[in-house]
Amino acid sequence: MDIANDGLEKQRAKRKRVARMKKMIVYTIISFMLLTLIVMTILIFEVISLQRQIDSISAKIAVSNTVDDADEMVDDSFLDNVYLVDNMDNIAEEGDIPMVYLTFDDGPSENTETILDILDDYNVKATFFVVGQDIDTYGDAYRRIVEDGHTIGMHSYSHNYSKIYQSEDSFIADYDKIHDLILDTTGVDTKLYRFPGGSSNKVSNTSMSVFINYLNSIGVKYYDWNIASGDATSQAFTADELIDNVMSDVVKYKTSVVLLHDGANKKATVEALPRLIESLNDAGAMILPITDETEIIQHVSVVQ
Length: 304
Known about the structure:
- The chain has about 300 residues and is an alpha/beta fold.
- The protein has helices at about 1-65, 110-120, 135-145, 160-165, 170-185, 210-215, 240-250, 265-280, and strands at about 100-105, 125-130, 150-155, 190-195, 220, 225-230, 255-260, 285.
- α7 links the parallel β6 (about 225-230) and β7.
- Mean pLDDT is about 85; it is low at about 55-85.
């Protein structure tokens, strides 16, 4: 009888040990899963934070690059999402004929000649905001812009944000350099300017009012844009997407100043241009070069 009781007690004790072991295993698995979930959550937040830092650093690097030659253009990707011009007087009304100004920044480059050929084929005049390039290589392009009846304006000489916007003296030195290059090469004393990044850029460490006041003081007009085609971005927009970006906004305004680029890496812009012109013509738009009579489109203005 005692032997039977001892056997029963041993079985009970064994079952209890097995039960405790099972509980320990279950608790261990649950604890491990919870710990894994916590670690994964922390890692996800760290990755998101790191990506934001990388994006911020990349943006700063992009805008501090210098245009040293036609193949090395600054990545102006932030331009495509920058500032809508809120001008109620410029909102299109029924019966208005859209006035569209195609403007090309960052040239001349190897693409400029092709763009000029396309514009000539369609008998369209545009506006080119040029930067400083080697005269031996691109002197003919500067001259052809003027000879073909297009408007030529300044877009800084270096296109180096950190240098141009370092101080008023730095801005004036760069301004004089691009102004004199255009004057000496084409004979045009241009009074038209476009700020790299626009007048509302968030890159300049110096208040943009300093540079705006300077341009105002010497009688130079600066133009921003109210339609961005999307070709400033490093993202590979197709020609169709560039056309859609422009045409979807042109209907909104009486006067549309369209931001385009003729830098060396803007192949999609070249491809899109013929169909863009045809689409604008089909929409009844007048495509014009900027002149003294053109309505001024500015993101920021300073009244003297």
